[in-house]
TrEMBL record:
It comes from the Bacteria. GO terms for biological process: purine ribonucleoside monophosphate biosynthetic process. It comes from Catellatospora methionotrophica. Residues 14-336 form the Adenosine deaminase domain. Gene3D superfamilies: Metal-dependent hydrolases. This is Aminodeoxyfutalosine deaminase. Belongs to the metallo-dependent hydrolases superfamily. Adenosine and AMP deaminases family. Coiled coil: none annotated. Its cofactor is Zn(2+). InterPro entries: A/AMP_deam_AS, A_deaminase_dom, Ado/ade_deaminase, Metal_Hydrolase. NCBIfam families: aden_deam, PRK09358.3-1. The keyword Zinc applies. One of its GO terms (molecular function) is deaminase activity. Keywords: Hydrolase, Metal-binding, Zinc.
Length: 340
């Protein structure tokens, strides 16, 4: 179908976003504003026009280094509140009605923001976003893998002690190389025992074994990325049989150089194997994308018409941990949109 028709269909389509990072969603304007406050003390450019170049990554390790330099700019609870509400506004503007935002409390608490103030700030933004923007937000608290077991310990403690109302899941992000998943088992066990869903990253930068580990040791209910599962037919069959969805973020994989070219992206092979997927944006401004653009990319990779694209949006709702009422309202809204 024509590119413009697809773009306008996607832009108006009510959607759910299941894999998007908090700091990684900061708009260029907010990042530049924060950088200006720390000018001379931060490598992050204070001019939004220079950010695209700063956000050009040579590999995944470089991406994490740049990501943490932006995390460094967030110094107090007010920064967290402004950032979170700004992210909500950008999502709502794309007709996102429900989003699970991956938040890394360890990084902020470690930089001096008390856990309680941090949680209060994100909760304030969540409540305001629901009331003012019609966007339902939920949190995934993730362990930054590069910081190891102390980060796991502290992330779990913040999750269980603070237990903000919007918290629904427990994750694991950052690098996979040198960060084996099995060591995090006790923390995921405790988080799951406390009723949190398990949604670790795996198979983003390393192979199928990491995904197996996430399933067996961390009790993963969905996998962040998981694209290298495509290398293992047995794993694909397992994911399909147990209906474990992959949260796929195509442009992210291109920008971190996990795939050399979108033409080589395994999304189509994963879908062909019967594995459920959702389409997501990961760190949209850092990767020069938006959720709407990811739907367009996915439509091209999967050769979908508007009916197929609407089905992708429905899949994300089904795979979400949204309250039943939010799911049914959003599914009805998608039906109404596609019928009109
Ligand atoms: O695509 C991604 N994969 C893994 N971690 C990511 C990604 N995007 C953002 N983060 C974030 O990187 C930080 C360092 O571990 C974490 O805060 C994680 O949430």
């Amino acid at each position: 179908m024509a590119k413009d028709d697809l773009a306008s269909f996607v832009a108006g389509l009510p959607k759910a976003e299941l894999h998007v990072h908090h700091v990684g969603s900061a708009s260029p304007r907010i990042v530049a504003e924060l950088a200006a406050r720390h000018e001379g003390r931060s490598p992050v450019p204070a001019d939004p026009a220079l950010l695209a170049e700063y956000f050009t990554f040579t590999d995944f390790a470089h991406f994490v280094e740049v990501y943490l330099s932006v995390v460094d700019l967030i110094r107090d609870a007010e920064d967290v509140r402004t950032l979170t509400y700004g992210v909500a506004r950008d999502l709502a503007a794309q007709q996102v009605r429900y989003a699970e935002l991956t938040v890394t409390p360890y990084s902020s608490v470690n930089r001096g923001i008390p856990a309680e103030a941090f949680c209060e700030a994100i909760e304030d933004a969540r409540i305001a976003a629901e009331k003012e923007l019609g966007l339902v937000l939920r949190w995934c608290f993730d362990i930054p893998g590069e910081a190891g077991l102390p980060a796991a310990e502290q992330t779990l403690r913040i999750a269980l002690d603070q237990r903000p109302d919007g918290l629904i899941s427990f994750g694991l992000g950052g690098p996979e190389i040198g960060v084996p998943r099995p060591q995090f088992k006790p923390y995921f066990d405790a988080a799951r025992a406390a009723g949190l869903h398990s949604v670790p990253h795996a198979g983003e930068t390393t192979g199928a074994q990491t995904v197996w580990d996430a399933l067996r040791d961390l009790g993963a209910e969905r996998i962040g990325h998981g694209i290298f599962a495509a290398q293992d037919p047995e794993l694909l069959a397992h994911l399909a049989e147990h209906a474990i969805p992959l949260e796929v973020c195509p442009t992210s994989n291109l920008r971190t150089r996990a795939v050399a070219d979108l033409a080589e992206h395994p999304l189509a092979a994963i879908v062909a194997a019967g594995v459920p997927v959702s389409i997501n944006s990961d760190d949209p401004p850092m990767f020069g994308t938006t959720l709407n653009n990811e739907y367009e990319v996915a439509a091209r990779l999967l050769d979908l018409d508007t009916t197929g694209v609407a089905d992708l949006a429905r899949q994300a709702v089904h795979h979400s941990f949204a309250p039943a009422q939010v799911k049914s309202t959003l599914l009805t809204e998608i039906d109404t949109y596609t019928a009109s």
